[in-house]
Automatic annotation (TrEMBL):
GO terms for biological process: aerobic respiration. Keywords: Flavoprotein, FMN, Oxidoreductase. The active site is at H269 (proton acceptor). InterPro entries: Aldolase_TIM (IPR013785), Alpha-hydoxy_acid_DH_FMN (IPR012133), FMN-dep_DH (IPR000262), FMN_HAD (IPR037396). It comes from Harenicola maris. Glyoxylate binds at Y27, Y132, R167, H269, R272. Belongs to the FMN-dependent alpha-hydroxy acid dehydrogenase family. FMN binds at residues 80-82, 109, 130, 158, 245, 267, 300-304, 323-324. This is Alpha-hydroxy-acid oxidizing protein. Its cofactor is FMN. Residues 1-372 form the FMN hydroxy acid dehydrogenase domain. The lineage of its organism: Bacteria, Pseudomonadati, Pseudomonadota, Alphaproteobacteria, Rhodobacterales.
Length: 372
């Protein structure tokens, strides 16, 4: 049972839970504190109902979406995720190839398991580099210059991790990055031989973007020294599009808009940082009203279906990003599983459009529910 058993994002998660070591599954799946934040966001998404409409010609439907002067094949892309190769050897490049096939942006994490140069090549240019500020920033700006040289045109600054959130499920397993194996992890891996043998053959995942930089990335290092002056310096250094990810406050979003960023990404880091954070879905409509109709607003956190994508677009989002679910699909069925889930998400969205009388998904961002 693998890719053929994936009929929803929840199917992918269920299968991945069986196949991944507990430590790896809980690293991907876990959230901050008692994990109330993702549950609250899920409830907010579920509470919104769609409006079915009848007798409209929706026989030909388009899922393409304008994005930064071009056109993406879907109104959703791939969120930046660290250490993706924990899901399966080569997961990073599976995601990159998917981005190339579907003409959607791939978020390449600072802590990716594959060097940023390989990722943008495999994605055929459909890649955005996600940046963490860390320590005094010297290493951060080295990565900025390297991303520029590699051909990245969009930089995504993640700002919601001044300190790494406490995620009890990770802590109970002794999860570390870089990856370390102790007695507890050895037993865990021994009970999941399919994953362990594949990882043993390919080698344990590394934080590949630091191999040649002359410094190590400490995941737990404070990022609290980043300020608005840091943002101004980054804006001056980066000639391409600059997206700021992890925005949940409208006042902050307005300051970012005035500071010259090209888009904000509403996100709670999947609930992994602050258990008491507001549901990102609940912030979207107010964010859109404050920033005006034309300023790009992106979204990630908690998307699990094509209907979820439709809902965030109707609330004012211009483009959404899937994260964990794609890693679970890879863990469940490899690259075939990833493609299977992507097709499921696309079909879910297409069917929802038909049910609501919409032929072109781009229409959703032009007026929301009033137009349905």
């Amino acid at each position: 049972m693998g890719a053929d058993a994936i009929h929803s994002a929840e199917d992918a998660r269920r299968l991945a839970r069986r196949r991944l070591p507990w430590m790896v599954f809980d690293y991907i799946d876990g959230a901050a504190g008692g994990e109330g934040a993702p549950a609250r966001n899920r409830a907010a998404l579920d509470a919104m109902v769609l409006r079915p409409r009848i007798l409209r010609d929706v026989s030909a439907r388009s899922l393409a979406m304008p994005l930064f002067g071009g056109t993406a094949g879907r109104p959703f892309g791939i969120a930046p995720m660290g250490m993706c190769n924990l899901a399966a050897p080569g997961a990073d490049l599976m995601l990159a190839r998917l981005a190339a096939r579907e003409n959607v942006p791939l978020g390449v994490s600072t802590v990716a398991s594959t060097p940023m140069e390989e990722m943008i090549a495999a994605a055929e240019g459909n890649a955005w580099f996600q940046l963490y500020f860390s320590g005094d920033g010297s290493g951060t700006f080295k990565l900025v210059e390297r991303a520029k040289a590699a051909g990245y045109e969009t930089l995504v600054l993640t700002v919601d991790v001044p300190e790494v959130g406490r995620r009890p499920r990770e802590l109970r397993h002794g999860f570390k990055m870089p990856f370390r194996i102790g007695p507890r992890q050895f037993v865990d891996f021994a009970l999941h031989p399919r994953w362990s043998l594949g990882t043993l053959i390919k080698g344990r995942p590394q934080m590949a973007n630091f191999a040649r930089e002359g410094f190590d990335f400490d995941r737990t290092e404070s990022r609290a020294r980043a300020t608005w002056e840091t943002l101004a310096r980054l804006r001056a250094a980066w000639p391409g599009k600059l997206v700021v990810k992890g925005v949940l406050d409208v006042e902050d979003a307005l300051v970012l808009q005035a500071a010259g960023v090209d888009a904000v990404q509403v996100s709670s880091h999947g609930g992994r940082q602050l258990e008491g954070a507001p549901a990102p879905f609940d912030v979207l409509a107010e964010m859109r009203r404050a920033l005006g109709p034309s300023f790009p607003v992106f979204y990630d956190s908690g998307l699990r279906s094509g209907e979820d994508v439709m809902k965030v677009l109707m609330q004012g989002c211009d483009f959404g990003f899937f994260g964990r679910s794609l890693l679970f699909a890879i863990a469940a069925g490899g690259e075939v599983g990833l493609h299977r889930l992507w097709d499921v998400l696309s079909e879910e969205l297409s069917i929802a459009l038909a049910q609501c009388g919409v032929a072109d998904v781009a229409q959703l961002r032009q007026g929301g529910d009033d137009r349905l």
